[in-house]
Amino acid sequence: MSPATTHELGKPLDGGWGWMVVIGAHISIGFAYSMPKVLSIFFKVIQADLQASYSEIAWISSIMLAVMYAGGPVSSMLVKRFGSRPVVMTGGLMCGVAMVSASFGNSIVFLYFCIGIIGGCGLSLNLNASLTIISKYFLAKRPLANGLAMAGSPVFVCFLAPLNQYLLNTFGWRGSFLILGGLMLNCCVAGALMRPVVPPQNSSSAPQKQVEEQPSNCNTKLKGNCMKTTKFLDLSFFKDRGFIIYLIGNVMYIFGAYAPIVFLSAYAISQGVEEYSAAYLLSIMGFVDMFVRPATGLVANTKWIRPRVQYFFGFAMVFNGMCHLLCPLFTSYSFLVVYAVFFGVGFGMVFALIFECLMDLMGNERFPSAVGLVTIIECFPMLLGPPAAGLLVDVFDDYKYLFYMCGTVIVAGGLFLFVMNIYNYHMLEKEKAAKDRKTKNVENQEQETISVSEMQQTA
After folding, report:
1. Is residue 229 part of a domain?
2. Is 4 helix (H, G, I), strand (E, B) or coil?
3. DSSP 8-state symbol, 197
């Protein structure tokens, strides 16, 4: 498969083979985000089989998500070195091997290692490589492309939730893991769609540039190695006020984002809901999420919302958090379906915007390094969130407290983003005005100097 080329002027294609890349990213991201969620359907059976507590069983998804996020910088480096295609294919192979190996596990620690660490590393390769290549193929239509790619998560949740319940009832959790391992090898097919983007070359200037750069490459190998080391984690992002605001809000969201998904089926069963119906709550959430993500991408791409996309992101977080705060009021299955619908709307809006907002702040060039740094920091709240929620269930023997905790943290994060972005944009305008005044003063001084010199020459 030949490499894809960019526009003559070096701008992203915004179409063409890029839509095939979006399909590949849709599959890859779909598995990356859906598997830690839908595995929760097996938790009750695994918990009884391996005699684990709620907090212990929650570590499976938690470790998987944390490793997926922590591997961001490594994945970014591999993408820069080898491109997205081989990285995604390698990640798919790792995920398949992880699930097959986990089916032979006889201890909760073995599942932590296979599903959490090996599977999480594979998902990390899939996620970052897919996000990076979309930013190279799209610019004007990037919010839409991101929305369609991120819609892979709800599509796969909608499909895999009832499938997992069927597999569990038919083959048990061990046989189900074997089948899921085979399904995850489809990420290798998705990776094959991701043609590398070859930037246009100026034939007249390329040889000269190559000659100029050759001595530098030969004489500064040690310096190059140091540069690679510093690029692993680019700490210069911490000097960017907008990045810090985004990071703090994002960390607060991630801490409370996944526990309600992990425990939703168990909560429904505790309220007397039948097992298949409880599993379908995840499908309902995923079905709604499936349409919300591309719709959010379309809305975010409008001329009214795109300049204010950071505010839209804050609103989506507050909406999502309020759903969790209201969830304990819903005890009947009909009301839980309503909760699942609104949960899907809020969750879909947030994840359609979460990486678009980072691209908006950092730009295409700095995005791969920025997303690597963000994901490795997010692994800590990702790791602690679901087990902390499981601990609340163990202590109080009631699920409502985990929903209160998650909802409160997420609402606080959304309000923080909304208020701090108002402050950030105000400061940016102030700094720009000061810079313009300084530039104008310098120009005036230069004009005065020229006028004085001309008068002296005339005299």
Report:
1. no
2. strand
3. E
Give the tokens for residue 386.
């679901």
pLDDT tens sequence across 85-120: 899 999 999 999 999 999 898 888 999 999 999 999
Cα of 318 vs its chain's centroid, Å:
18
pLDDT digits over 22-55, tens only? Answer: 898 899 988 888 888 788 888 888 888 888 877 7
In a domain, 219, yes or no: no
Query: Quick one: pLDDT band at residue 250, thresholds 50, 70, 90?
Result: very high
Q: How far apart are the first and last CA of the chain?
A: 74
> For position 343, what pLDDT does the model report?
93
> Which amino acid type is present at position 345?
V
Q: Which residues is 5 bridged to in the sheet? A: 198
CATH code assigned at 69:
1.20.1250.20
Give me the count of residues in the chain: 459
CA–CA distance, 389 with 402 (Å, rounded to integer)? 5
Rounded mean pLDDT of 388-410? Answer: 90
Q: How many domains does the chain have?
A: 1
**Contact yes or no for 130/25 (Cβ under 8 A):** yes
48: buried, middle or exposed (CB in 10 Å: 19+, 13-18, 0-12)?
exposed
Q: What is the pLDDT of residue 199?
A: 63
Measure the CA–CA gap between 287 and 351, rounded to whole angstroms. 15
Residue 445 lies in a domain: no
pTM to 2 decimal places: 0.70
Show the CA angle centred on residue 183, arms to residues 295 and 134, nearest 5°. 40
Contact 61, 386 (CB under 8 A): yes
User: Is 431 within a domain?
Assistant: yes
Which domain range does residue 43 map to? 16-197+238-435
